[in-house]
Design goal:
Two copies of one chain form a homodimer. Chain A is of the alpha/beta class. The first copy, chain A, is built from 13 helices and 17 strands. A seven-stranded parallel beta sheet of chain A has the order 10-9-11-8-7-12-13. The first copy, chain A, is globular, with a radius of gyration of 25 Å. Strand 16 of chain A pairs parallel with strand 13 of chain B.
């Protein structure tokens, strides 16, 4: 079968999926969850083979960590499938309903996007998450996973194909050249979601006419305001940096109001000590780190544009919330930025003026995640301003149609002398 | 001032606009409407000069028709400004609100997109419409109008600048090379909306990294089902074709169920006679047009892919609603497609299976328009499936942010033994 025919089959299977009821699609998910549970030894075996091979190939520890699919990760992935199954159906939701004129009713209703093309990195549990979201939202899904996880991914895929009758809407690609084919399948894929390195995401954006959703960088900032509660500030900044530094929602930059700097910086430093965090400190914060036992170096401008993805951070003292907001506008990747403050006015200003997908107050940037947000799961995090922004769950996989039902109305009646007038009455509460 | 500084000024002015209240922005619009009214003779004078020049340059009648801004068109444009002013504010709308855990509240809230770059064709009244939508939604707007309307556009722009204090958020460009500059201003423009020829829209899409919203083609179809009411079918098809054939929402193709063909086609043909419509008829419809006094020719496959934008149409007899839906999937530009039917099951199938921005039953395709839909006005019609689809009014000019307010929550508390559990309780009705 040629490539185009394969892609067309996915599109057709997605249409069949869309003709099922939400209950039927949720039942498919529960069946899939049970099949993963029953076949877990088979999955672990495949994963161990992948890990063994990766070990021989000498992949990094961070990548190895993501590759592992053990009892606890599989259990939480299976929980995720059940959680997606229990989410409200994102389809056929009437967003607007308006009486245009007698007998002429307009509705704006949600429908599946169509077919999603997803390229993801080492984590095989991402496959489970993404397939669940695609099935629940009645979209076709074409997946290309990282080669390190190829055996785990193909095992998961086999289990899905064995279990589900309607699994034709799911397709797993295996060869690297499939990515370039995917980027060219304009008529068959409605949205590309690349999850991978900054460079890879940009490569996708530059080489396709299909819309791409995702994020390239995750340069997240926590700003500690003048009136921040010190315990909160230390906890939030520490968690944002160290809880999982390889994640895109980990903080890279800490901004500190000058009035808080003398108290906050030494306290924060002593909290970081046990983790061995390297601090790139600007001129004003440097002297306040004299007792820090970890590594400190003078920050250069580039450090504030760097996504460290490791136990390193950049730190800067600012004169005002205005300077903090300007710094974020200039340096942040508009992913997640947080303020620690007790001042409601400053919180409001930060919420209104920081133009990022996620804007937080008094909590860790690490909450930026579809599961934590209550979306059931996420296909990724979007830093684009169009369509879906931030963690993208089921809603981001839908589009809308305008449905207009009449009984013979024509536009000529609304023009010229004796023209009819539109009523334009909203019918939704 | 260099180009980049000019664009930066628009962005900053848009931020100031966003800090005003909705009442203040609506008051700006009413002031602008009054200024157009007061200065109408000045506007008409400029427009007459444009028309005179265009006449000498020998532009087409269709273009000339769009260029005219006379008493009635200005009056309806001014009405449009007032209608936009009276729309519900599209900003700070809470789309989701969820208690993640005690004291940790997540909201998804609408905000302005930022700065819109708009390139539009001859119609100067489009400038008025677009500026109103941008001001109401607190977006900056950078406009490049057609050169035929340059004097009219610059006069409208002068009036806006003279009238509004906060008018820095509006910028009119005049030189053709400004379009290429605009396409490169990635950091300063959030969305490009090109309105113009198919070729021009594709040029924009191919030459920018900024998201582009719009439509290239408008190949709209009306399908007359087996059980259609004949009067309705004739009226709807005639209006869809002839009411304003140069519009993107005019019908180009008429599909007829075989059981309706013998009755419908002669009736429809006699309704078209007075307009002198040329019919490209397939083999099965051709014999049913033997009494038609207008021009008839045998349709070729290309005719069903053609946006005639004039008094021409393609006609085809189909065996079933399935064939009609497949034909639309293959040939439509996913703009607006309509069914005429008395069968609710077929209407539902058409609504569910036709994957277009606007799907209508028993009414004219010409209703696909922001004003007629009750959106106040439109910046354009999108055939993309992401973000806004169909006529785009105020809502399409917004984005959302996720705002998370806590009191010191960190992610570490939700991991490991004794992990806290999320509550995930929806707080909106």
């Amino acid at each position: 079968m040629d490539k185009e025919a394969e892609y067309r089959n996915v599109r057709n299977a997605a249409l069949r999926l869309a003709s099922l009821s939400d209950e039927e699609r949720s039942a498919m998910l529960l069946k899939m969850a049970a099949a993963f549970e029953e076949n877990k030894e088979r999955i672990f075996r495949a994963n161990r083979e992948d890990i063994e091979k990766a070990g021989k190939d000498g992949i990094s520890n961070a990548l190895l960590h993501r590759l592992v699919l053990d009892e606890s990760k599989l259990a939480s992935a299976i929980e995720g499938v059940k959680s997606v199954a229990s989410q409200k159906c994102p389809l056929h939701e009437v967003r607007e309903k308006r009486l245009l004129d007698e007998g002429l009713v307009l509705e704006k209703v949600t429908f599946p996007l169509g077919v999603i093309g997803m390229v993801f990195e080492a984590r095989p549990d991402a496959l489970i998450q993404i397939v669940s979201l695609a099935i629940k939202s009645a979209n076709g899904i074409i997946l290309k996973g990282g080669k390190e996880a190829s055996l785990t991914n193909s095992t998961l895929y086999e289990i899905i194909r064995e279990t589900l009758d309607g699994a034709g809407s799911v397709m797993l690609l295996s060869s690297h050249s499939d990515v370039d084919t995917m980027l060219k399948m304009e008529g068959y894929i409605d949205l590309i979601i690349p999850r991978g390195s900054n460079k890879f995401v940009r490569y996708c954006m530059d080489n396709t006419h299909i819309p791409v959703m995702g994020h390239a960088d995750g340069i997240c900032t926590v700003y500690v305001d003048s009136c921040a509660d010190m315990d909160t500030a230390v906890n939030v900044c520490t968690d944002s940096k160290v809880q999982y530094p390889a994640a895109c929602n980990a903080a890279e930059t800490i901004l500190v109001h000058k009035d808080a700097a003398e108290t906050f910086i030494p306290l924060f430093a002593s909290s970081l000590e046990q983790y061995g965090v390297t601090i790139h400190a600007d001129e004003r914060s440097l002297p306040l780190l004299k007792d820090y036992s970890g590594k400190v170096m003078k920050a250069c401008e580039d450090d504030f544009h760097t996504e460290f993805l490791s136990l390193e951070l950049a730190m800067k003292v600012v004169d005002s919330i205005d300077e903090a907001i300007s710094h974020i506008a200039e340096h942040s990747s508009h992913h997640t930025d947080a303020i620690v403050t007790c001042d409601d006015t400053n919180r409001e200003r930060f919420f209104n003026e920081v133009d990022s997908a996620d804007v937080f107050s008094n909590c860790s940037t690490r909450f930026a995640d579809g599961y934590r947000f209550g979306l059931g799961a996420e296909v990724g995090i979007s830093t684009g301003k169009l369509h879906a922004r931030g963690p993208v769950g089921l809603e981001g996989l839908t589009t809308t149609k305008w449905l207009l039902s009449g009984n013979g109305q024509i536009v000529r009646s609304y023009t010229g002398r004796d023209a009819r007038h539109f009523i334009h009455k909203d019918l939704l509460p």
